Amino acid sequence: MNESSIHALLPALSNFAKCTRGFRCAFIACFSRDIPHEVLNYRLDVGAISYVPRDTQLQATEILKDELTLVVPLKHPLAKRREVDVEDLANETFIGHIVESPFRRRVIELFTRHRTTLNMPIEMPTIESIKRFVQMGMGVAIVPRMCVQWEIERSWMKEVKVRQLSLPRHVYLVSRRGARLPHAAAELMRILRDGE
User: Fold this and answer.
1) N or C: fewer beta carbons within 10 Å in the chain?
2) How many Å apart are CA 185 and CA 180, to the nearest integer?
3) What is the distance between the alpha carbons of residues 148 and 135, in angstroms, rounded to a whole number?
4) What is the pTM of this model?
5) In angstroms, rounded to a whole number, what is the distance separating the alpha carbons of residues 141 and 180?
6) What residues does 61 pair with on adjacent strands?
């Protein structure tokens, strides 16, 4: 799975760990683009990605719907607002994710379409480091909501809706089509499908 998928799957992984005592399971962080290849080549039993792979030898099962969201530090002036326009963000310092992704490109395109400068002088290697920088007051960020839900619920940062930002994300479990999964992988699939 990639880094953001780990956040989405933590509750299910907790249930999975309780159901599979005695099994050894390794959850490996990979770039999303590499996961289908790793599954096809039997290096992974299943993978979690945010797109449906093109290869017909793979099947994808949707396990989660998510979206991108803007988060700001609690003492930031925007924290008092529920909603903003893209144009309101022209003077903000954004903490970006250095990993290339379709969602990163779509956010950049959104700012370009609205003729608004996306000031992103800081790019971090992980979403965890982005969240820490936001909490430290170093800037604002647009990240998958599932990655910041815990912090928002505990009032460690504030979520602000951007009217023009409508970027739904889906998380899919991919596996080899028709393949018999090992017991542990099949149980993980069941837990995720059933929403446990």
Assistant:
1) C
2) 10
3) 11
4) 0.81
5) 41
6) 173
